[in-house]
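[Discussion] Sanity-checking designs against the backbone

I'm trying to build intuition for which residues belong where. Below is a structure token string of 521 positions. I'd appreciate it if someone posts a full sequence so I can compare it with mine line by line.
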């Protein structure tokens, strides 16, 4: 099972002044089954999406998550979050039988159209507040196919908890031994330890160790034979303490040394996870180690609940190559769902465009083929040529596409000059505009990135294209065969040949083009 859709009404920056109309959500966002990467500039709403999911599902790390007044859009008195889950297999669906809905799915096969019913689960979290006495009215997560739903049981909610990695996470404190450490929580939920409180071999090993500690302070080995003289300092220390104890209590009292806590939970809380042979690891290494342990939690066997990872700022403490290595691996994970946020153009360039969701102007825009005006050749081209320098277009308030280095170098300097002369108020950097050098004239692959099939749900990012006046020194002509028919390649694409043009023809066309442009200035 996975989150297929999120709807928000008046939550954080996703709101309106019209109140809540259930058929008009302020955000209606679809997710993919595997990797989903929320990308965009600061304050574009990425964290609000993650927090909305956390509020409804809660997390395995038992973080204290509650509604605050900042969760309400402006002065609204109510917000609503709705999550929909699809892809439930029978072992997962059985946990939510009384709340499930059913939808008819039509599949096209070689033998024709095939219709079948599939279950879905809809969660509803509707919260209100009283502005007069500044009071948030307690509300439960409900589920069902109608607008209000029915309360979920505690057992059902356990199957819906997400794994969450906060931004700028302190991986070191999560991995060291301490009470209720995140590492201990992860290990307790793994099949290697779950349900084996008294019978686990670690309990026996720990008991043996504790007995050895006790014997050491008695000056004995585990088999009760005396220790060597140079190892009897522990007994001397115990004897000194026993003198005071017998003086303070009675002659039949004595001290006993041992390691506190012998239950499996206590033992796991004493464990530390580290990288073998790594001395004093840095934040980046610890961060990757921590993510590895959390992904272990998502790979549990015999688990019939959701496998969802929420990771904010995946790039935290990681250098570019480490970022790329991690995201390349995560793109291959198909048995878990991941929803990430990032500010990194490195990740923006490495992730398949189909997995990206651009957050902009209080909305979110999936970049899959079913949403954009890009065709299959555009996706192939962008996945090959959209590098780190070009990926900054995902964080811009405006984009200028240029053909080469001359325009990329000249335009910012020209804009700064105009600002100094008082002719414009902001240069490109101040206006948040990115200049993207695509290195050729294939602008169509990039210009359609922000065009949507849904004309009512548009990306408010202006795009300009600036070319030079270079005139091609060759003609591009479609090839024909002996029967005067156009040739195509194996992919059905036209085949062209290139014929050189006379130099005088090129010069004349170039002069005419320059005169045409200068006449308009």
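Best answer:
Here's mine. Compare freely.
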């Amino acid at each position: 099972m996975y989150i297929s859709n999120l709807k928000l009404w008046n939550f954080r920056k996703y709101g309106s002044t019209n109140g809540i109309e259930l058929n008009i959500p302020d955000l209606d966002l679809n997710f993919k089954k595997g990797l989903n990467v929320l990308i965009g500039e600061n304050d574009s709403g990425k964290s609000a999406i993650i927090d909305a999911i956390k509020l409804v599902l809660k997390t395995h790390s038992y973080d204290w998550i509650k509604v605050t007044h900042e969760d309400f859009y402006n002065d609204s008195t109510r917000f609503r979050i709705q999550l929909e889950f699809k892809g439930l297999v029978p072992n997962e669906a059985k946990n939510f039988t009384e709340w499930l809905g059913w939808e008819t799915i039509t599949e096209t096969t070689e033998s024709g159209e095939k219709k079948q019913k599939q279950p879905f689960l809809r969660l509803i979290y509707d919260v209100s507040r009283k502005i007069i006495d500044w009071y948030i009215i307690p509300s439960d997560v409900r589920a069902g196919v109608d607008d209000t739903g029915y309360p979920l049981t505690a057992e059902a909610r356990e199957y819906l908890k997400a794994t969450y990695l906060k931004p700028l996470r302190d991986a070191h404190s999560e991995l060291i031994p301490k009470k209720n450490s995140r590492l201990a929580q992860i290990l307790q939920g793994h099949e290697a330890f779950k349900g084996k409180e008294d019978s686990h071999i670690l309990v026996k090993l720990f008991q043996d160790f504790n007995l050895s500690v006790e014997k050491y302070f008695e000056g004995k080995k585990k088999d009760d034979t005396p220790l060597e003289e140079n190892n009897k300092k522990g007994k001397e220390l115990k004897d000194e303490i026993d003198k005071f104890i017998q003086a303070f209590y009675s002659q039949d009292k004595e001290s006993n040394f041992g390691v506190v806590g012998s239950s499996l939970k206590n033992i796991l809380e004493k464990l530390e996870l580290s990288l073998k042979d790594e001395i004093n690891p840095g934040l980046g290494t610890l961060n990757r180690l921590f993510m590895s342990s959390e992904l272990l939690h998502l790979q549990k066997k015999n688990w019939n609940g959701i496998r969802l990872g929420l990771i904010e700022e995946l790039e935290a403490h990681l250098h570019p190559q480490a970022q790329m290595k991690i995201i390349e691996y995560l793109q291959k994970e198909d048995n878990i769902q991941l929803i990430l946020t990032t500010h990194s153009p490195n990740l923006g360039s490495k992730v398949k465009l189909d997995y990206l969701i651009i957050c902009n102007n209080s909305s979110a825009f999936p970049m899959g083929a079913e949403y954009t005006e890009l065709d299959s050749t555009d996706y192939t081209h962008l996945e090959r040529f959209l590098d780190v320098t070009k990926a900054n277009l995902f964080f811009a308030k405006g984009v200028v596409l240029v053909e080469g280095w001359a325009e990329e170098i000249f335009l910012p300097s020209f804009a700064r000059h105009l600002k100094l002369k008082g002719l414009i108020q902001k240069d490109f950097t101040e206006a948040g505009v990115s200049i993207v050098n695509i290195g050729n004239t294939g602008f169509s692959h990039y210009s359609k990135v922000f065009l949507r099939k849904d004309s009512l749900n548009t990306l408010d990012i202006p795009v300009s294209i600036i070319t030079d006046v270079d005139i091609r020194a060759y003609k591009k002509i479609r090839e024909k065969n002996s029967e005067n028919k156009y040739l195509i390649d194996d992919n059905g694409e036209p085949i062209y040949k290139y014929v050189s043009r006379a130099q005088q023809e090129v010069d004349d066309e170039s002069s005419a083009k320059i005169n045409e442009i200068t006449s308009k200035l």
